């Protein structure tokens, strides 16, 4: 019996240990699940912050597109209609490189044409080692590319065979490190290794011109094995805001203007899409319920009627815009990019002007959605959202099986949707910050099954733990968000005062969240973000919004964050600074504001403009540099030098805001 009792005690002892172990395991599991949930929550709202701010900027850019185009058409000599309709021979002479000498001290790569594979590899190695290609060779290479592109169709058609795999790459956005890694992992373009690059080669990154020159080099060497689709960022006005124009003018100060003008020509001739084996459609943005590849394929960019049609449509659109009672359908004509405007000028029988315009806009700007149907893409300000039913109908009508598109940054570098019939592909890793996302490319053989390869180009990401990576990205996103909030300080204070009926400087959390969203329009979880953004609280959990702005101000380290419209103002400055000297003459300034007064239908006297110019020219050197130009629009709580200018012509800063908010712009 004693043994029985001993065994029973031993059994109960083991049982208690087992129960304790199970409880501990459950607690650990519960803690781990909570940890994963919190990490995922941080990852999601960090991602939402980056994307919301990015799309908000694109929406503002589209609204400003027509004003900037108007400014260029009327201010920049090279944008005049007479030059736009000039014969190709005239442009060939303008882009001639033969009078540009290469000095003996030049240590970069030398090019001879036709290009060879060895030269392309040498160019790639030179860019890897931070060397720069001489402007003579840049113009020569671009000119050869332009000549080739003029012979290509609007929609490329390629085929695979048992010995070939096609590699498709998404957005690169000036990140040379990603392109070099793709070539290292997958091999360089060749007869046995064709590539499709799906647009958005430029902007945001610092090596956009190098990426273009590499891609154009391989295009010239393998014209039947390298295919380039146009993205929404292959547009010279978009480039003004997002960095590519500044990059080219910085790297090529003497001949930068000619290089940019030639690139503008090249962008307008890039194909719109690529079809693989008649079954897979590769295009940058997306489709809509009206997309018809047959219509897009018939657009004749070589038509002799092109320039006559261009002038006629351009005058019609200007007349529509300046009409006081223009309808929403008419005003939307001004949302189209230069490529779209060029396309609608073509006399295409059997297709209405509006349908053709919208089809091209959709190709460049659209995004998929989970719901059925098709609706305007109000988040980006252009293109549409299309659902799985639109995908199914389009693929059935065209006897296809898959759409590969880019245009959206994805955390894993790719994402399937619409029952795996739409694949989004993004090749710029670490797009928002180091560790924010992977890049990816796709390999596709004769079976047309996409095989996705992921990567991250920065070696720093391999040194960070998952927790460190998320923390770094989160801090970067919150920093950008705080800058955006501080830049909208005046509007936010007005919104807070609408809830603060007692003028106590306090608002509830609910009112704070409503006020912030009403001003920012970012569709973010503000209640959840409050702990990250607000540390100062009043009594009873109320938020002291004046102290909050003081807190935000302390965190600012860059003066540029104090400018509400800094991107727009920098863009305007670059347009007006036609000789790329970094200075605007008084006469150029007067001419610019005269154009602005006409565009905004404001009455501004020459004397008022001259007085404003003198006010902005703080060092009285007779010209206006970028710092003086930006300082004139600096947001401050106190009256500044701009107050005198505002009274002269009815609130210029307010009118800049109207440009952002006017639905007709």
UniProtKB/TrEMBL annotation:
<dbReference type="GO" id="GO:0050906">
    <property type="term" value="P:detection of stimulus involved in sensory perception"/>
</dbReference>
<dbReference type="GO" id="GO:0051879">
    <property type="term" value="F:Hsp90 protein binding"/>
</dbReference>
<feature type="domain" description="EF-hand">
    <location>
        <begin position="604"/>
        <end position="639"/>
    </location>
</feature>
<feature type="domain" description="EF-hand">
    <location>
        <begin position="564"/>
        <end position="599"/>
    </location>
</feature>
<dbReference type="InterPro" id="IPR013235">
    <property type="entry name" value="PPP_dom"/>
</dbReference>
<keyword id="KW-0677">Repeat</keyword>
<keyword id="KW-0460">Magnesium</keyword>
<dbReference type="InterPro" id="IPR011992">
    <property type="entry name" value="EF-hand-dom_pair"/>
</dbReference>
<dbReference type="InterPro" id="IPR002048">
    <property type="entry name" value="EF_hand_dom"/>
</dbReference>
<dbReference type="GO" id="GO:0030145">
    <property type="term" value="F:manganese ion binding"/>
</dbReference>
<dbReference type="GO" id="GO:0005506">
    <property type="term" value="F:iron ion binding"/>
</dbReference>
<keyword id="KW-0378">Hydrolase</keyword>
<dbReference type="InterPro" id="IPR004843">
    <property type="entry name" value="Calcineurin-like_PHP"/>
</dbReference>
<dbReference type="InterPro" id="IPR051134">
    <property type="entry name" value="PPP_phosphatase"/>
</dbReference>
<keyword id="KW-0106">Calcium</keyword>
<dbReference type="GO" id="GO:0005509">
    <property type="term" value="F:calcium ion binding"/>
</dbReference>
<dbReference type="GO" id="GO:0043409">
    <property type="term" value="P:negative regulation of MAPK cascade"/>
</dbReference>
<dbReference type="InterPro" id="IPR006186">
    <property type="entry name" value="Ser/Thr-sp_prot-phosphatase"/>
</dbReference>
<dbReference type="InterPro" id="IPR029052">
    <property type="entry name" value="Metallo-depent_PP-like"/>
</dbReference>
<dbReference type="GO" id="GO:0004722">
    <property type="term" value="F:protein serine/threonine phosphatase activity"/>
</dbReference>
<protein>
    <recommendedName>
        <fullName>Serine/threonine-protein phosphatase with EF-hands</fullName>
        <ecNumber>3.1.3.16</ecNumber>
    </recommendedName>
</protein>
<dbReference type="Pfam" id="PF00149">
    <property type="entry name" value="Metallophos"/>
</dbReference>
<dbReference type="Pfam" id="PF13499">
    <property type="entry name" value="EF-hand_7"/>
</dbReference>
<keyword id="KW-0904">Protein phosphatase</keyword>
<keyword id="KW-0479">Metal-binding</keyword>
<comment type="similarity">
    <text>Belongs to the PPP phosphatase family.</text>
</comment>
<keyword id="KW-0464">Manganese</keyword>
<dbReference type="InterPro" id="IPR018247">
    <property type="entry name" value="EF_Hand_1_Ca_BS"/>
</dbReference>
<dbReference type="Pfam" id="PF08321">
    <property type="entry name" value="PPP5"/>
</dbReference>
<dbReference type="InterPro" id="IPR012008">
    <property type="entry name" value="Ser/Thr-Pase_EF-hand_contain"/>
</dbReference>
